Batch of 2 targets.
Target 1
Amino acid sequence: MKQLADIAHALVSPGKGILAADESSPTIEKRFKSIQVPSTEENRLAYRQLLFSAPDLGRHISGVILFDETLRQRASDGMPIAELLLRQGIVPGIKVDSGAKPLAMHAGEKVTEGLDGLRGRLADYAALGAQFSKWRAVISIDRGIPTPFCLEANAHALARFAALSQEAGLVPIVEPEVLMDGGHTIECCEEVTGAALGKVFASLAAHRVHFEGMLLKPNMVVSGNKCEAQASPREVAEVTLRCLKRFVPAAVPGIVFLSGGLSDGDATKNLNAMNQLGGAPWELSFSFGRALQSPALKAWGGEQENGLAMQRALLHRAHCNHQARFGRYRESMETPDATP
Ligand code: 5MM
């Protein structure tokens, strides 16, 4: 168990956070479509290899979450991708769920699948060099949902995943994502996030998950994206921390927020505001996908010759979020020249 706690602490070491690059095939296809690039295996490898080899990426990025395909790939010089990351001082991790699927008899709700055969897959991933794993549950807010049953079903799956991961020596990142889609208020998001976290931690405890050897990847508590009253970063920070303090044990070493469709700037500002407030018993860090990658994806545009511009864009976002880890981010840092 000590080894699990050491990895978890390394992933949230001061100033650092996680790059989520675990887009499944349909998601990466959607991202590539936005820049008119076909989602071939060759293009996916070219893009991700450029991301992971950005000079000194390990200064601000502690871990990278990979998709199954990527963990099995080799860089153009033949080096396994996991080794490329380790040489950057970055811990390789793996997404192990097989996606959120419609929950039977519960219109509009989903449950994440992937438990069948998970013990064997975790052993394979550990042999391939993964040191941590991730499972994402998706919870929607709408009229009459989420139901307590949906929260329960997802909490149970998250806890089974977490226990199996720890048994295999991998640090589980437990991700219950309350989506920001909809016209709901920040108060409604707080209530649903609290209900989801309450069930997740009760289930984790029942499954004997070792809190010191896991990380939580929640949504920030925000207004729905169609809500007229959009909360400020300060308000998001206060409400998010209030909610987390009620439901997340202090034994968990760190909270690594997802960005969930927030703009890259808003995700950074919210994280910064939380770290400015202080007083949290956990490291407050990031595990962003879109909020780290979006500018890099645009700068790349599918052209190898744009590799340097793309890496610069990624390093710039990593630097801004590094500053936000200490509550030192300023909007003036948004000029790309501000990256040291
Ligand atoms: C990078 O996206 C991840 C994979 O999503 P799919 O399984 O739907 O393809 C996702 O789990 C991601 O790790 C988190 O949602 C965080 O990413 P964002 O973009 O929300 O920060």
Target 2
Amino acid sequence: MDCLFCKIVNGEIPSKKVYEDDLVYSFYDIEPQAPFHILIIPKKHITSALEIDDSNKDIVGHIFKVAAEIAKEHNIAEGGYRLVTNVGKDGGQTVGHMHFHMLGGRNLQWPPG
Ligand code: AMP
Ligand code: ZN
């Protein structure tokens, strides 16, 4: 499948790895929007959060757990962070492989644009 993030998972396209296990891969966003900006993605292709159902919902909990661990390791646990997934055109999704942005290291505004 011609998917940018599948290619990142299998190493065809280089990335700066933050974390990896059997289920997920995490790497630095190429255009950081905050001092700390990484993406956490399932290794298995899921187009967006709209595809989450009973067969694959456990990955979402796993991603949140991994994010908490990364926060503690990268010293953003105390300051806090935002974990967000954009879905579809109106959600601002530009890569069709579900990914969670993890942003921290500055005071983030709400609501987002
Ligand atoms: P979204 O707009 O939610 O689909 O987010 C896609 C994100 O992927 C953006 O923040 C991009 O900066 C990021 N991105 C695109 N290509 C790469 C890449 N090759 N390596 C790392 N991050 C990327
Ligand atoms: Zn993919």
